[in-house]
């Protein structure tokens, strides 16, 4: 999957007579972008006015042009050369532009609705004056949405601020100063604390200081990748192998590991056949209303489309979870569908000590549990609850749809407050990883849900989705702007290899890897593309290893090669201080927003030895050969 430098274009040509050279165009609806293609070096644009570009950045360009194209810079501001990425080209906007990090002022432009929501969520800090990156006369708040990418080789930083820009610095000192000032400003804007060592210790904890700042490195954690790393010698495009249109909006899909998978639609389930070349429609539809009550999960007669379907009992049953109220993310219960008969056979409500409660999400007891025919329990998660539910009735009475029965809370813990759980996933042995709104990632073993064995501190962004490898050695956490790949392995005092699920890692934690989009991709279509649903390829057998990582972002799916990401000598990591980020990936683009992306089970290998990638939009399901 190559390096990312050539994808963005180099900024090392200062010839004033050369035109800007082409960079790769954004993929069309059926193309993908391969981040190892050759592009040239950007150079100054043809002699024309900045307002001639038909881009959403015209106002900013006018400001920058009027302030900086004459080579002047505000007093006290450092200088750099400014480029903008326009219509597939890097073009010089200013030969010498002033830049600095400054406090927000009352004269700064008003925030949009999303920014206001973000600001108001910082309870007790509404009047805080944020640090801003000022370039010329334009300012942008310092946070992860800037998508800052530093290149020490080119003395360059790329960023997103109503467009994609690049600053090329005249010296290493200025480059390092910008990097250090950015990290300090981001820390203060995120945690509302001065970036002192004492405050960083307060935020990260003594054991995780090196983990959060990227200073705890150990080549042995990544050495497996060095032995099996494979670098493609030539470009091989992803090939779409199957396409299945949907008659109505796709909400999600439940991937099966046996014969079938299922599309969850507005009206029911579309049954799909699992093939080595992808998922193929069968023409069979199971309607939710057939043979039972609508799956509201709380005994209501109001139909609400399920947001998720969870396969159980050897994939013969599906648990459907629906919002308790329109616009809400929690549910008061689940409905049980018998796939063989197409009938709703039970409706269950969540209850603890006789009191109705809600759940944000449910998942299987372990990563391969849906394949087991005797499965009768599953896990539930809410903001402050982590528990296991049992479908077996203690009195041995078959449940009646007319009177939803309460599930048995068999084990778990209801935390007093403050956990803000958002998502969870299970490893092959039933260990649990939980992501929270405050950005923390907690690891729970198989013996207790009361206290996490290991808790990784926040890097500053809420965790929206988590996954874990079958062996529990790696965790993948999704935020809006990046993925966090965490190694859970460590050696105890006797030298025995363990994971953070089975013991407290203490100070034996190693810095994570961040997986990010290039700024030109993060701002594709002129708007920020939020990442969602990051996961590993699907393995359910000891000794097998996951091959890929996949995430959805707006209208495209992004795939990383797991071995390349783990390779400590990969080009993206060379010369990087602090946390290392990987920008080498493949892209599958679609004409509309992607609902879900996932790899099929490892048993469905094609001739190339890879499992198909499945991508769902609201209107269709597509399978790709990787």
In the CATH hierarchy, the architecture of the domain at 45-195 is: Roll
- Beginning-to-end CA distance, first to last residue: 11 Å
CATH class designation of the domain at 45-195: Mainly Beta
Secondary-structure-based class equals: mainly beta
Spatial strand arrangement across the major sheet: 4-3-2-1-7-6-5
**From the alpha-carbon coordinates, what is the Rg to the nearest angstrom?**
25 Å
CA-based shape: globular
InterPro entries: CYPRO4_DUF7135, Vid27, VID27_C, WD40/YVTN_repeat-like_dom_sf, WD40_repeat_dom_sf
GO cellular component, one term: cytoplasm
Protein name: Vacuolar import/degradation Vid27 C-terminal domain-containing protein
Domain Vacuolar import/degradation Vid27 C-terminal: 305-573
């Amino acid at each position: 999957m190559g390096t990312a430098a050539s994808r963005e274009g180099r900024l090392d040509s200062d010839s004033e007579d050369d035109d800007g050279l082409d960079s790769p165009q954004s993929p069309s609806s059926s193309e993908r972008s391969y981040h190892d293609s050759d592009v040239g070096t950007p150079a100054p644009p043809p002699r024309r006015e900045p307002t001639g570009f038909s881009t959403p950045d015209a106002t900013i360009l006018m400001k920058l042009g009027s302030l900086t194209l004459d080579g002047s810079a505000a007093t006290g501001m450092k200088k750099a050369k400014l480029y903008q990425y326009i219509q597939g080209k890097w073009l010089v906007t200013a030969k010498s532009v002033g830049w600095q990090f400054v406090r927000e002022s009352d004269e700064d432009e008003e925030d949009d609705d999303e920014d206001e929501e973000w600001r108001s969520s910082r309870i007790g800090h509404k009047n805080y004056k944020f640090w801003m990156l000022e370039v010329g006369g334009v300012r942008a708040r310092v946070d992860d949405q800037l998508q800052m990418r530093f290149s020490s080789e080119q003395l360059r930083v790329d960023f997103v601020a109503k467009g994609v820009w690049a600053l090329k610095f005249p010296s290493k000192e200025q480059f390092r100063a910008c990097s250090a000032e950015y990290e300090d400003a981001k820390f203060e804007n995120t945690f509302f604390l001065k970036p002192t060592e004492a405050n960083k210790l307060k935020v990260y904890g003594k054991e995780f200081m090196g983990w959060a700042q990227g200073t705890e490195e150990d080549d042995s954690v990544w050495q497996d990748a060095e032995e099996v790393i494979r670098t493609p010698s030539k470009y091989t495009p992803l090939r779409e192998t199957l396409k299945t249109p949907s008659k109505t909006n796709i909400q999600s899909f439940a991937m099966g590991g046996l014969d079938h998978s299922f599309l969850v639609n507005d009206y029911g389930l579309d049954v799909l056949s699992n093939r080595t070349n992808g998922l193929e429609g069968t023409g069979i539809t199971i309607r939710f209303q057939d043979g039972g009550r609508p799956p509201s999960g709380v005994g209501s007669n109001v139909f609400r489309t399920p947001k998720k379907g969870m396969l159980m009992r050897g994939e013969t049953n599906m648990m459907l979870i629906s919002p308790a109220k329109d616009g809400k993310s929690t549910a008061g219960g689940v409905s049980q569908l018998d796939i063989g008969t197409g009938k709703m056979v039970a409706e269950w409500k969540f209850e603890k000590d006789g009191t109705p409660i809600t759940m944000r999400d449910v998942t299987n007891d372990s990563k391969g549990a849906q394949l087991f025919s005797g499965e009768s329990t599953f896990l539930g998660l809410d903001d402050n609850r982590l528990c296991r539910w049992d479908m077996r009735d203690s009195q041995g009475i078959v449940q009646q749809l007319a009177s939803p029965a309460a599930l048995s809370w068999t084990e778990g813990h209801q935390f007093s407050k403050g956990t803000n759980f958002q998502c969870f996933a299970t490893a092959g042995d039933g260990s649990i990883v939980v992501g929270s709104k405050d950005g923390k990632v907690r690891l729970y073993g198989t013996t207790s849900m009361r206290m996490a064995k290991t808790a990784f501190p926040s890097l500053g962004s809420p965790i929206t989705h988590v996954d874990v490898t079958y062996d529990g050695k790696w965790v993948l956490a999704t935020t809006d702007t990046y993925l966090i790949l965490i190694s859970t392995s460590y050696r105890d005092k006797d030298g025995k290899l363990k994971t953070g699920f089975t013991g407290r890692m203490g100070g034996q934690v190693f810095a994570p890897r961040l997986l990010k989009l290039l700024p030109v991709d993060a701002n594709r279509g002129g708007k920020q593309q939020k990442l969602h649903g990051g996961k590993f390829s699907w393995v359910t057998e000891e000794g097998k290893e996951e091959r890929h990582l996949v995430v959805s972002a707006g209208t495209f799916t992004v795939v990383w090669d797991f071995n390349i990401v783990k390779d400590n000598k990969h080009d993206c990591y060379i010369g990087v201080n602090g946390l290392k980020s990987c920008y080498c990936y493949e892209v599958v683009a679609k004409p509309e927003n992607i609902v879900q992306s996932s790899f099929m089970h490892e048993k469905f290998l094609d001739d190339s030895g890879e499992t198909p990638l499945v991508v769902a939009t609201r209107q269709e399901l597509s399978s790709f050969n990787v």
